[in-house]
Write a structure and sequence with these properties.
Blueprint lengths: L1 E2 L10 H13 L9 H21 L6 E4 L2 H15 L6 E5 L4 H12 L3 E5 L9 H7 L4 E5 L13 H7 L7 E5 L19 E5 L10 E5 L25 H16 L1 H19 L5 E3 L10 E6 L4 H9 L3 E2 L15 H5 L4 H4 L2 E5 L6 H17 L5
Parallel strand pairs: 1-11, 3-4, 3-5, 5-6, 6-7
Antiparallel strand pairs: 2-8, 7-8, 9-10, 10-12
């Protein structure tokens, strides 16, 4: 089996699973309880929070645990909008955001907020000048993802940070789900970023766990009310075993960042070079300012899901662009935003590599690709 769908989810590290099992079986007290078992759980919770914060170069008081990226995005987009509604009801999100951000913004529009979508250029990068033109006196939030989940374009977070440097009333949110442990932290978590969202299962942790970075002093309405956990910002009993496992996974993947970048970029380069030899292949992902591990392409006249299932017959697992919307059969929203014709966009499939992949798998993929390419000759 060859697994090239790591942007959808990663395989948990054995050490991460071991941490989860050990904590779940040995430290099962509720962190909110006053007795010694609760105290033991609280100490581990605090230690996990400190470790995650240190890995990101932030304070532990700025890390808040969630159930994952979708919850984090919903919380920030809605929570900031409502918290700052008295000062303005206008928000801006990029036109290539994950549905968790886009749909949250559209829901806010139904609640009386005004939403603008910042356009991207033909390569899939937010146009910072056009973003600047959308800013108004009543703008309270700008949200731009760090790494696009469909084609891997690394967004100009530094330039946007510079744009917002003299606009302290505007909160800046970055969806970092596809960026953490894949590109350097400084590329997406600048000093100007106020909020950032993360998801454990994207970096060899477990599903159902994530966290949000909230810069000290920044206000946000809670998404969940109740027992007052997470400094009253997210009330629900913490998933302690999952959180401890997340801290372990983040440490392991961030320590492996340079190796990850080196290995995946080399594999991606070889696949790109081979793809250029096929006249009916369109490559949507580049190398400059693109994540090292994501490569999106299409075969002329062949729908993406057909290619996905064709590779699956050889036990090679890839995906149509976004895992969250792939079953809907819709063309990649990022490609449409880039101006790619819908018929061409529906051909897109995504490879997302990991440091655990190797050159022998790349060779097998390319051999299989040649077979599938020839089989689609009549359709092309």
């Amino acid at each position: 089996m060859i697994y090239f769908d790591n942007s959808a989810t990663t395989k948990p590290y054995p050490e991460v699973l071991a941490t989860y099992t050990e904590v779940a079986s040995k430290i099962w007290g509720n962190p909110s309880s006053l007795h010694s078992l609760g105290g033991q759980a609280t100490r581990l919770l605090d230690a996990s929070r400190r470790q995650i914060a240190a890995l990101l170069g932030k304070s532990s008081s700025e890390i808040f645990f969630t159930s994952g990226g979708t919850e984090g995005d919903n919380w920030v987009i809605k929570g900031v909008a409502f918290e700052k509604a008295a000062y303005g009801r206008h928000i801006i999100v990029s036109n290539i955001e994950h549905p968790a951000v886009k749909e949250s913004a559209l829901w806010l529009r139904s609640q009386g907020f005004e939403v603008d979508f910042a356009p991207v250029d033909k390569a899939g990068f937010v146009d910072v000048d056009k973003l600047a033109e959308l800013i108004r006196p009543d703008t309270t939030l700008v949200s731009v993802m760090a790494v696009n989940n469909e084609i891997g374009s690394i967004q100009p977070i530094q330039k946007i940070s510079e744009l917002l440097a003299d606009k302290p009333t505007i909160s800046f949110h970055v969806d970092a789900v596809q960026a953490v442990s894949k590109i350097p932290t400084a590329d997406y978590l600048t000093d100007r970023v106020d909020f950032a969202t993360f998801s454990s299962h994207k970096f060899h942790g477990l599903r159902g766990v994530g966290f949000v970075y909230i810069k000290s002093g920044k206000k946000i309405s809670p998404l969940l009310n109740g027992g007052g956990q997470e400094s009253d910002k997210r009330s629900t009993t913490e998933n302690l075993a999952g959180i401890a496992a997340t801290a372990k996974a983040l440490r392991m993947t961030m320590e492996n960042l340079k190796n990850f970048e080196s290995r995946t970029s080399k594999m991606k380069a070889i696949i790109l070079e081979e793809m250029s030899q096929y006249p009916d292949v369109t490559v949507f992902s580049g190398t400059k300012d693109f994540a090292p591990h994501i490569l999106t392409f299409g075969i002329k006249g062949v729908r993406g899901e057909v290619i996905v299932h064709a590779f699956e017959e050889y036990e090679i697992y890839i995906s149509t662009t976004s895992a969250c919307s792939s079953k809907a059969g819709k063309p990649a929203g990022t490609l449409i935003a880039m101006g790619v014709p819908s018929k061409l966009a529906t051909t897109a499939v995504r490879l997302s590599l990991d440091a655990d992949n190797d050159m022998s798998q790349v060779e097998q993929f390319l051999t299989t690709f040649k077979i599938i390419y020839e089989k689609t000759r009549k359709v092309r």
